[in-house]
Task: structure prediction
Amino acid sequence: MKILNITSITELRGGDAQMYTVYKLLKEKSELKQYILCPHNSILAAICKNDNAIFFTYKKNKFKLFNLTVAIVKICKKESINIVHIHDSSALNAGLIALKFLKKCTSLILSRKRNNKIKDKFLNRYKYSHPKIQKIVCVSKAVEDIFDKIIPNKERLITIYDAINVEEFTHKSNQNLLHREFNFSPETKIVGNIAGLTNQKDIYTFIDTAKKIKTNNETNYPIKFIVIGDGPLKKDLIKYAKAASLENDLFFTGFRSTIDLLPEFDVFLLTSITEGLPLTIYEAFASKIPVVSTKAGGIPEVIVDGKTGFLASIKDTETLSKRVLEILENPDLEENIKTNAFQLVKQNHDLNVMQKNYYDFYKSVS
Result:
């Protein structure tokens, strides 16, 4: 069986990162041969080149739809591709056009990570309900739900949860990198988030929650707040934090490698409006960091309120702040949540689980 993975994204987003993770996990399966097609100037292309992966590129210019369609047709014919696996909605357009020029036995599947609402319009119903799409792989049940009014045949939907290398995070220890960088006192507790600075992540609610935590802090510890990530809202968010009198308490680090910084968090506070199911939650679980989060998207599928973390309604700063302080004030509760969350991620969201799930899935696609 030969599989062509296709993306039209030039940045390295979560979907492409996980696609490449699956590609590496299945390389050892001799009965599956995988290929990648991506823009010539993409980050993924550079990674593939460095790793000697089997990949092709196309030029993403004003003729990008035509270029990608032609590339798909040429590769599928030359390599006798059985499965065209599309990893973003823009590439889906090219994939559907390309199938008109390929053998009927070529299957098309689509992966979807985000639970952003799909408008109930004719073109969307036609596109996502296209008979050539054999399966749509969703990252959570919440992502499946966005197709409720778009796809009549729900049997085409399947959820395969993402995964991480749990052991890689488990063995990381707290190096106090943030404490040293920002000159925090040793007893300072850190409440942190890892997110792109976009509307979807709603860092404004993180800031509002931080202000309430600071006001209501009756613990024996000072509390500081860290946001790791970058994005178009950075200047506005810094201004908003300053207006909330948090300029000495809340710090934006910019983009960082997070695996060494996560162990320093005392609570992971996620305030998103929409999510498929972010890998950062799995990473926090594996790092044994308790998570307090909004109920965005698929998050309630892994956070059981009071057992593997705490949940609050979107923008509910009152509940979010109370839960963070509750964890910091109650070591037994904190330990119980960390233990339960670690067991969940180890059992259900380690790479070996995802490897088996995708292997079984590909073998089931006719």
User: Anything to note?
Assistant: The chain has a mean pLDDT of 95. Residues 166-348 form a domain with the Rossmann fold fold (CATH 3.40.50.2000).
